[in-house]
Amino acid sequence: MRILLAVVLCLCACKRTDAPTRLQTAREKLYVHQPQAALEEYRLALDSLDRDESKEAAVYRARALRGAADTYYLELRDFKRAVEVYRELSQLCPEAPETLEGRLHLADILQTQFHDLRGAITELTAALARNPPQSAELSYRVAKLYFELADYQQAELEAAGMVRKFETSPYVDDALLLRGQALAMMEGRHPEALKAFESLAEKFPDSELQPHALFEAGKLRAEAGENEKAIETWVEALKRHPDPNVVQLVISKVRRQLRATTPNKVGDAALAFDREVRVATPIATAVPPAKMPKTSIEAVGGTPDEAAREAKMGGGEAAPAPPPAAPAVPGP
């Protein structure tokens, strides 16, 4: 009996030592672009670990399942089989390091290939429970997925929580912008949304998201009837916005509304910031008619009536008589 037990243990040990060899062979097959051959090696590695509950076997099992799932996903683009193997990995090896990355890959597949956003949230939340180094990024991704689901209240809660928990993360400005957008989508929360956008612009003036936050803040101000402040905010956003034409379009639209509803006055902000090229229409001025030349009667001080009577009697104004010629002076 002892001999039989020793034989069984020896066989198990042989199988266990066979697993790392199979895993190495699988990696070599992938290196030479033979994914199907690699999958066969992973299968043989898993077969060699069947019914082995040792810790060492658990390590090799997780590596084999992760390798097979990655091969389906990244090499063969067989997303359905990849999902199946990643889920098997999560079920059989929940605490393995390979499972954490496997959940992230599974979340990507569910989101991009099957549009299963809630399934992706489930996988990311499970990954976050392990407190991974990329927790801030994963928290932001969860908030963004809730926004895509139009669950704006939960998106706002997740984004706000991420900002509080990871205040030094490079994803904080992303979360602030997302929180502002979620608040803007909820009725009665626009003042809070405006504060979120302004907070981003103030705390992160060098962020590439700063002009986007200013643009959104301007929209909220315009909706609240603060058109002049909205224009000032958009003019500030123009300095760094990647698509200035969009900003200029809304500025022009609001300026036209102001000009149509408000009389022009000195110091009008809508006109002060107006960069549109406007050709001024010259004001038409009345040209006074040319004065008729005076008649000879008027020229010597007569009245216009006297000049008119003279013209009537003579059929027109008489030409003045030439002065008499000077008498000739006789020579000596």
Write up what this structure looks like.
- Mean pLDDT is 83; it is low at 1-14, 276-301 and 313-332.
- The protein has a domain at 14-132: Tetratricopeptide repeat domain (Serine Threonine Protein Phosphatase 5, Tetratricopeptide repeat, Alpha Horseshoe), CATH 1.25.40.
- It has helices spanning 2-31, 35-48, 55-75, 79-92, 97-112, 117-128, 135-148, 152-165, 172-184, 190-203, 210-223, 227-237, 244-261, 269-272, 296-299, 304-314.
- Helix 4 (79-92) runs antiparallel to helix 5, helix 9 packs antiparallel against helix 10 (190-203) and helix 9 (172-184) packs parallel to helix 11.
- The chain is built from 16 helices and no strands.
- Helices cover 67% and strands 0% of the residues.
- With 332 residues, the protein is mainly alpha-helical.
Oligomer: single chain
CATH superfamily of the domain at 14-132: Tetratricopeptide repeat domain
Q: SSE order in H/E notation? A: HHHHHHHHHHHHHHHH
Approximate shape: elongated
Number of strands: 0
Mean pLDDT: 83
Low-confidence stretches: 1-14, 276-301, 313-332
CATH-defined fold name of the domain at 14-132: Serine Threonine Protein Phosphatase 5, Tetratricopeptide repeat
Please give the radius of gyration in angstroms. Answer: 45 Å
Q: Quick one: CATH class of the domain at 14-132?
A: Mainly Alpha
| Total number of helices | 16
Question: Cα distance, first to last residue?
Answer: 184 Å
Biggest sheet layout:
none
Write the CATH architecture name of the domain at 14-132: Alpha Horseshoe
Beta-strand portion reads under 5%
Helix content estimate: 55-70%
Q: What structural class do helix, strand and pairing data support? A: mainly alpha
